[in-house]
Design goal:
Blueprint lengths: L1 E6 L3 H14 L3 E7 L2 H11 L3 E5 L7 H6 L8 E6 L3 H10 L2 E4 L4 H14 L4 H14 L6 E5 L4 E5 L3 E7 L2 E6 L4 E4 L3 H7 L5 E5 L2 E4 L3 E5 L5 E4 L4 E3 L2 H10 L4
Parallel strand pairs: 1-2, 1-3, 3-4, 4-5
Antiparallel strand pairs: 6-7, 8-9, 8-12, 9-10, 11-12, 13-14, 14-15
Helix pairs in contact: 4-6
Length: 249
């Protein structure tokens, strides 16, 4: 049985969550509900739950600020709840932290709980949240992206990524030192996870880190040379925007 706490400043959201969990997720028992981050901190310490449903935007102290104050010895899984906010969603994806959009869809809720069941006894969720909080405090080029492996996640600094290349339903990520990682997401989803300040699509199948571009060549077709020596074609439709990005136009 999963012991859960719901932390949300909106009573209607709490009530809806409780009803949905009772109906669709009988393995989850709600042991407490809190309408502020302060109440949530006290409840977590007192009840030591397996799972927290945490609203991102709350008055006085938001969900991220609350997590900074939690005793790091307490281990639990977190599912963030939020109204649609592109920045927040991107942060969750980059850090491999689970989230639910309000109003919460029952299928999404069931899927999230199934993931929690597989990880409720390990500390992977805590590690991912730590990465999320760190990313929120650092410059984009020092942020890290969570990439799953057989044992959990690798946290890769985004500035170490030279470029990403589509490989069917997967993405091949080329890192400094020519290390390659296969990510089980298509290139479009990978692009959504990476900071636009650093990355530029130069072809429908190639996404590059502009900090790693060494040269631009326009003889016999446009292409760039990355600082690891790889030559990458630039499509006609992407050429002008890339040159503007590089300060050539």
């Amino acid at each position: 049985m999963i012991r859960a706490i719901i932390i949300d400043d909106e009573p209607n959201c709490i009530k809806t969550f409780q009803n949905d969990l009772k109906m669709f997720c009988p393995d989850v028992t709600v042991i407490d509900t809190c309408q502020s981050a302060k109440e949530g901190l006290l409840s977590i310490k007192r009840n030591q739950p397996n799972l927290i449903f945490l609203d991102v935007e709350m008055p006085w102290m938001n969900g991220f600020e609350m997590l900074e104050l939690i005793d790091k010895e307490i281990n639990f899984q977190i599912i963030f709840t939020t109204a649609y906010d592109q920045f927040a969603i991107k942060a969750f994806k980059v850090s491999a932290v689970d989230y639910l959009l309000k109003p919460v869809d029952s299928d999404d809720l069931i899927h999230s709980i199934e993931k929690v069941k597989k990880t409720v006894h390990d500390d992977g969720g805590t590690q991912n949240v730590s990465n999320l909080l760190q990313n929120n405090k650092t410059d984009v080029k020092h942020q890290k992206i969570a990439i799953s492996n057989r044992e959990g996640y690798d946290f890769i600094p985004v500035d170490k990524i030279i470029y990403c290349k589509a490989n069917g339903a997967y993405t091949e990520i080329v890192l400094d030192g020519n290390k390659k990682i296969i990510l089980s997401k298509p290139l479009g989803e990978t692009e959504e996870m990476l900071p636009a300040e650093l990355f530029e699509r130069i072809h429908h199948s190639i996404l590059v880190n502009v900090h790693h571009i060494n040269q631009y060549k326009k003889t016999t077709g446009s292409y760039i040379i990355m600082n690891n020596g790889d030559e990458l074609n630039v499509s006609k439709s992407k050429k002008e925007h890339l040159l503007i990005r590089l300060g050539v136009k």
